[in-house]
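Course assignment 3, question 2. Fill in each field.
Student: A.L.
Task: Predict the tertiary structure for the chain below.
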Amino acid sequence: MLASLGCEPLELGEVRRMIGDGVATLVARALAARGRAQADHAAATQTFMRQYEAGATSLTTVYPGVDTTLQALHAAAIPLAVCTNKPAGLASRILEHLGLTRYFAQVLGGDSLPFRKPDPRVLLALVQAFDTTAQRSLLVGDSEVDAATAAGAGVPFVLMSGGYRRGAVADIVPSIAALESFAELPALLGVPLR
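Answer field:
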């Protein structure tokens, strides 16, 4: 997208700190970082989405321990959903590519509702869809955006130390725990790994 505007690419570390608030915000941050904040944002977003859709699964992998963790939670009949600011269609396509679709009852993307994380209504919509309460729910996330979403919704939060965030992991305070590995999650929930 930046190359189409004659701009130099961003370093991976720069981009990682821009991720988490949805595509429109990522594009705006990338444009601003290259001094192109006045560029046609809508056109730049369309260019970004064409590129992203073409390669959404090419470099995407599953974190270690995710498969066995999801298997254990699924076997324990714990209903699961994805709550992401990524467009829902792309999130579903990525889950399908990774063989993870079967574990999730719902995928809620940044384009599913008129608002997105960190707006707590996103998470509360999932709480309502699962006919449960905020206190009986759990958000497992990796960023300041996830922490703010959980806090605003009154949902307990587990922080995964890997992933995408703008600041240091130590600056994000989980309400339950900070975990290094997804394989730690089942034990935290009292679910045996198989």
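Instructor remarks: The chain is about 40% helix and 10% strand. The chain has two domains: 3-55, 66-188.
Grade: pending
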